[in-house]
Each structure stands twice: as structure tokens, then as C-alpha cells.
């Protein structure tokens, strides 16, 4: 589907009006030249409170979309988008840049529009949730492994200094 067609469908579907407005505010309200951004990356500059606030607003949008008929599959994808946005956005410096580039609410609005207008993303959330859980477990295992390696390395470097 062409971007213009998607835009027309977004503007004509009354179920999406409030969601469209908040999405624009969070992801594309302001412009500097051709670069568009919203409140999400600005809020992300406020440690903890900003990230939590942006996540709550995004989660509220997802809940609204679910109440208006989003399937389990599309809801799981939306939750993944906002969670990824919040987690990476919480990392100092990298997160700030990521927040300006990764527009989770806009991605979710596109998912919902595809769901409503094209019948995409139908069905159960089980495959999506299962893949998310497996990915999270792999990341957790990698983090534990890297933490142990870092601690062992630090121990090998600090032990001789402490024993002197």
C-alpha cells in the first residue's frame, strides 16, 4: 500500500481519531527542516520520569487500540514496539538518539491501520509472545554470561592490587 493511500485511510477511520492525534503529538508534532519529532524523545531527556511517562502514554494508546478491536497478534506487536522504545530509550545518550529515530507510536498506528483496512495481523498473539519471550531469555542469558566474564576479568585485574 502506498503511503498516500494509508494516510487517506487513517484520516477517514473514526476509530483512529484520538489515536492519530496522540501519535502525532508523541512522534511527529515538531519539525526542524525535514526532520519530524514529538514529545516522546523530549520526555526521554528527563531521566526515569520522562521514559516512564512516555511509556504510560504509549501503553494507554495500545489499550485504546485493543478496546477498539485490535487482535491479540497486533496488540503483542504493539507492546513489543513500545517496550523496545522504552528499554533502549532508557540508555543514556544512545537512548536519546534512538528515541528520535524509532517512532513506536507511529509504527503501532500503522499496524492498527493495516489490521483495520487490510485485515493484516489477525489471530493469536501466542507466536509473537513466544518469540518475544525466547528473545528476552537469550538476551538475559547473554547479559548474565557477559556480567560473569566482566566480574572474572575485574577480579583478575584487581586481586593482585588488593593482595599487595
From TrEMBL:
Look up keyword Transmembrane helix and say if it applies.
Answer: yes
Q: Is the keyword Membrane in the record?
A: yes
Task: Tell me the InterPro entries matching this sequence.
Answer: DUF4112
Output this protein's name. DUF4112 domain-containing protein
Source domain of life is Bacteria
Q: Name one Pfam family in it.
A: DUF4112
Residues passing through the membrane, by range: 42-66, 78-102, 128-148
Q: Which UniProt keywords apply?
A: Membrane, Transmembrane, Transmembrane helix
Which segments of the protein form a coiled coil according to its record?
A: none
Amino acid at each position: 500500500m502506498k503511503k498516500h493511500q494509508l494516510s487517506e485511510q487513517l484520516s477517514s477511520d473514526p476509530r483512529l481519531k484520538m489515536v492519530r492525534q496522540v501519535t502525532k503529538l508523541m512522534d511527529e508534532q515538531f519539525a526542524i527542516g525535514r526532520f519530524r519529532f514529538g514529545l516522546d524523545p523530549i520526555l526521554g531527556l528527563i531521566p526515569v520520569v520522562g521514559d516512564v511517562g512516555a511509556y504510560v502514554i504509549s501503553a494507554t494508546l495500545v489499550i485504546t487500540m485493543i478496546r477498539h478491536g485490535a487482535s491479540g497478534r497486533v496488540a503483542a506487536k504493539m507492546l513489543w514496539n513500545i517496550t523496545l522504545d522504552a528499554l533502549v530509550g532508557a540508555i543514556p545518550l544512545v537512548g536519546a538518539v534512538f528515541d528520535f529515530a524509532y517512532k513506536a507510536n507511529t509504527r503501532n498506528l500503522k499496524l492498527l491501520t493495516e489490521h483495520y483496512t487490510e485485515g493484516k495481523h489477525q489471530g493469536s498473539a501466542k507466536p509473537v509472545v513466544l518469540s518475544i519471550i525466547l528473545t528476552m531469555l537469550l538476551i538475559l542469558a547473554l547479559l548474565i554470561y557477559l556480567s560473569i566474564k566482566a566480574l572474572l576479568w575485574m577480579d583478575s585485574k584487581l586481586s593482585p592490587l588488593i593482595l599487595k
